[in-house]
Amino acid sequence: MSSRIFAYALAGTMAFAGAALPSDIGRGIDLAGMDHSIRPGDDFFSYANGTWVRNTPIPPDRAAYGLGAILTEKTNRENREIMEQAAAGNAPAGSEERKIGDYYASYMDEAGIEARGIAPLKAEIAAIAAIADKKALAAYLGGTIRADVDALNNTDFYTDHIFGVWITIGLNDATRNEPYLLQGGLGMPDREYYLSSDPHMAADRAAYIRHISNVLKLAGVADAAARAQAIFDLEKKIAAAHASRVDSEDVHKANNPWRREDFAKKAPGLDWNAFFAAAGLGDQPVVIVWQPHGIVGEAALVASEPLDVWKAWLTFHLIDHNANVLPKAFVAERFDFYGKTLSGTPQLQDRWKRAVAATNNALGFAVGKLYVAKYFPPSSKAQIQAMVDQLKAAFAKRIDALAWMAPETKAKAKAKLQTLIVGVGYPDKWRDYSALTVVRGDALGNFERAELFEYRRNLAKLHQPVDRSEWWMNPQLVNAVNLPLQNALNFPAAILQPPFFDPKASAAVNFGSIGATIGHEISHSFDDQGSQFDSLGRLDNWWTSQDFAHFRGAAEQLAKQYDGYCPFAGACVNGHQTLSENIADVAGLSASYDAWKISLGGKPAPVEQGLAGDQQFFLAFAQSWREKEREAALRQQLLTDGHAPAQYRADTVRNIDGWYPAFGVKPGDKLYLAPQARVRMW
Fold first, then answer.
1. Alpha carbon of 463 to those of 149, 165, 168, 627: distances in Å?
2. DSSP secondary structure code for residue 513 in this structure
3. To the nearest 5 percent, what fractions of the chain are helix, strand and coil?
4. What pLDDT does 362 receive?
């Protein structure tokens, strides 16, 4: 389970595809998609989006659908064209373009994958069967650990390795990179799926046991049903040891630098020397343990649970983890559980869509280099950079205006803002894929080598200077991210186009949409977690005690506001789980509103489409969160995601004073908040 301390993405997952991009999208406000039968003060999301929501079906291969999905579909088709051209085989052998083409073509070769069957995994299955003792088990667990990057790359699997490893700048020493060890070992999204008494969770547990059994049967493993139950029972014990999502976001609970020689004493049960040596971490004197309780519990289970159960667990996860590059029976089985059961998605994606996603995961920056050359003009980069400067200036003015903040705290906040590194479109230095071997016709081998390449690339950072400009998101990803330890932001090229950014749209629309996104990511540097890091990315308390107490009070007020949003009876948003994102939404929208007003130079905003400037701004914001989800996916989001559902993010406007006169919102309206009840974070 990755922590958002490492990276705050704009959305938990925006990698949905669907219908073709409408030709008029992004050209101002979608008036036809609004629902004027709803009072804006009662439900602003539905007022802005109700007709679109009512008339737009979720495509059968999607768990959710919205503007991010539509734009991702457009981008995926562009990526497909790039990959198919690369797959034609005209690029020089060993070049990045050739690797892109060979990876994509191998994934698309269903006939070849079908013919090879399970054979490509036989050697690894045999290696698991040959594990003779717990020391050998520890070595195997360490040797198969991989970089825990699922939170950023929108992968469709969970932390099914025993632990996750993230390598980035140290919490306490910003001059060097450190390894972070995170709890893992689960095949379902979160500990609550194993432990909750909710009947939906109980049904998911039963389905998961069937899934484990079915996977083992497909691979020809004997006693599949009994082994499936044993595997589930082991994972339930792992889940009981796990820290909760909320606890995992508390950096002070997570800042646990353990010396290597202390692991055996603090977390007995696992042969840590064998584990770290196999993981390539044998030369690291200190490892930061993110969830100590989870690590201690899992190490104890290595000792207490039978070796055969661990071997069965390893066998299942090896097969299931590689299912998408195995014969179609494995693909269908995996989709049946993770797609249909957990997300409510009726239909598997087309093969080409899965091939595009897989190639982007493996060679994302190589694809991105080709993508931006073709689809991201320098003019867009320049315009977004100008908006970033305007947003930073507006945020600085908001800091100056804070009556409750002491001058010394303001000075440090502004220093952090001034040193913020903002990447627009794509990195200045492209990633080097020369060490990655791609073999045409070896889909499974390519997948495994790409994962190992990424892990080794991360390991290498332990012996290199800190790079604060490092990018974590592919340029062709529809998302954005704040990196607190780097004090940096990434705005990938793919989100910097209609509907989120349109060079031909009014300033009000662009500031309401992409401006709020930019403000959101800037604000993450000052949310409940980002605010605990200084201008160098160090974990450092730069607040006076009075200032931080005031800030925490406002944060608690916002958490309570979101606790009251309940899409289902008894299933509500967790205001503390989503607090960082909610703070960034409020602060980012406020800063973008100010930046837009400043950009007018004192002149009134022009009326467009019959809408005043403020109406354009707030409607653009609400329409940027246009999305609908299947019930199963929404229930999963409530449990596992740090982001509130889209409809409640659109209602952030209720905390902004300018929204009330723009739409005549009065006391008695459902979203109305008295001025003193509106949350003002920055």
1. 20, 16, 11, 43
2. I
3. 55, 5, 40
4. 97
Pairing between β-strand 8-9 and β-strand 163-169 as defined by DSSP bridges: unpaired
β-bridge mates for residue 169, sequence order: 177
Which domains can be identified in the chain, with CATH numbers? 106-349 (1.10.1380.10), 378-425+498-682 (3.40.390.10)
Neighbours of 391 (CB within 10 A): 27
Q: Please give the DSSP secondary-structure letter assigned to residue 667.
A: B
Q: Tell me the CA distances in angstroms from 7 to 13, 473, 524, 525, one per residue in order.
A: 13, 10, 10, 11
Token pair, residue 534, equals 């200084």
Quick one: pLDDT at residue 283? 95
**In which residue are the tokens 């945020």 written?**
395
Residues 652-675 as b or e (16 or more Cβ within 10 Å = b): bbbbbeebbebbebeeebebeeee
* 472 CB-contact burial (10 Å; exposed 0-12 / middle 13-18 / buried 19+): buried
Contact status, residue 249 vs residue 642, Cβ threshold 8 Å = yes
So what's the pLDDT on residue 89? 78
Gap between the Cα atoms of 307 and 311, Å rounded: 6
**332 Cβ neighbours under 8 A, 6+ residues apart:** 348
d(CA 439, CA 426): 27
Beta strands in 284-431, from DSSP E residues, in sequence order:
286-289, 421-425
Q: Can you tell me the distance from the alpha carbon of 537 to that of 542, in angstroms, rounded to the nearest whole number? A: 12
First to last CA, the chain: 30
Scanning the structure block, which residue is given the tokens 């060679």?
A: 363
Q: How far is CA 482 from CA 171, 250, 468, in A?
A: 16, 17, 12
Q: How far apart are CA 515 and CA 538, in angstroms?
A: 27
Q: Taking a C-beta distance cutoff of 8 angstroms, is the pair 345, 139 a contact?
A: no
> Is the distance from CB of 8 to CB of 602 less than 8 angstroms?
no
pTM attached to this predicted model: 0.90
SS3 176: coil
Give the per-residue pLDDT at 532. 84
**What's the CA gap between 380 and 503, in Å, rounded?**
7
What integer pLDDT is reported at residue 363 of this predicted model? 98
Stretches in the chain below the pLDDT threshold 70: 1-27, 148-159
The pLDDT score that the predictor gives to residue 566 is 97
The DSSP element (H or E) to which 164 belongs, if any, is strand 163-169
Please tell me the predicted confidence (pLDDT) of residue 616: 98
For residues 574 and 553, what is the distance between their CA atoms, to the nearest angstrom?
17
**Helix locations, 511-658, DSSP H:** 516-524, 545-563, 579-599, 613-624, 631-640, 646-650
Contact assessment for residue 633 and residue 343, using Cβ atoms and an 8 Å cutoff: yes
CB 229 within 8 A of CB 209: yes
Cα-flanking dihedrals φ and ψ of residue 595, to 5°? -60, -40
